[in-house]
Design a protein that fits this description.
The protein has 309 residues and is of the alpha/beta class. Helix content is 41%, strand content 13%. Helix 2 packs across helix 3 and helix 7 packs across helix 8.
Length: 309
Amino acid sequence: MGIESKDNQKALYHVPALLNESIDGLKVLPSGIYVDVTFGGGGHSREILNRLGENGRLLGFDQDEDAVANIIPDNRFTFVRSNFRYLKNFLRYHGINQVDGVIADLGVSSHHFDDSVRGFSFRFSGDLDMRMNRGASLNAADILNEYQEEKLADVFYKWGELKNARRIASSVVEYRSKKKIEKTDDLLEIVSPFTRRDKEKKILAQAFQALRIEVNGEMDALTEMLVQSLEVLKPGGRLSVISYHSLEDRLVKNFFRTGNFEGNLEKDFFGNPLTPFEVVNRKVIVPSDEEQRNNPRSRSAKLRVAEKI
């Protein structure tokens, strides 16, 4: 059996959703400066580089050490191993004050879902980790074993949108009183009684999502990144964001339309909307039927693009 090429390895790491649509949305200028805040397997970054001229520049952010293996050997590309919530600081470090575009693919890479060691998926037996940055101290098992019942219920309700959040939290507390929660199998045993056969995968996915968001502080990081993107974008610069669940999409939609996360549109004395963006696609962009067939994990992807006024 032959050794896989680097290109094949990167394809296996993650197949980017809405690739052309998201990069088209950036309106890439040949000499522009762009940021891919979710580098991952580098799929979106490679397409940006394909459209950049020799004087263009691209920075790719990723906090996961595994993404380092996908660094693109191109003198126009700079890799930043950091959470995108520190976007502005690292741009300043690299001597950049303003950029022409920012892209964010908020989905978890296929690489993470398919790596049993990382604990992101209920499909595999493994440690309950879920850290994007394995240097971080808090993992999913810590949350399940240490959070008080009320706080656990909040996590499952806010980040997983689970109707049985309180009952699941109570079951977690009861389970850990007899046995330490360490494995994905432990979580399955706790949550499975609250599922129905026709909704089992969905509810398990929501429970795992809730823990992953809490472990990685994803919603706080997202709001910080969006605010900083607005600050560093040039007038006319574009922000292209792919989200995968309603919590993310709601934040992005509100921010693009109103400049805040609550969705409160302010108006001036004459009734004109006070918003920092012009929404490029009024209707959310979703993958074609063909893309969904070829890449089933793209099914929940939603793309929104906005241009800074």
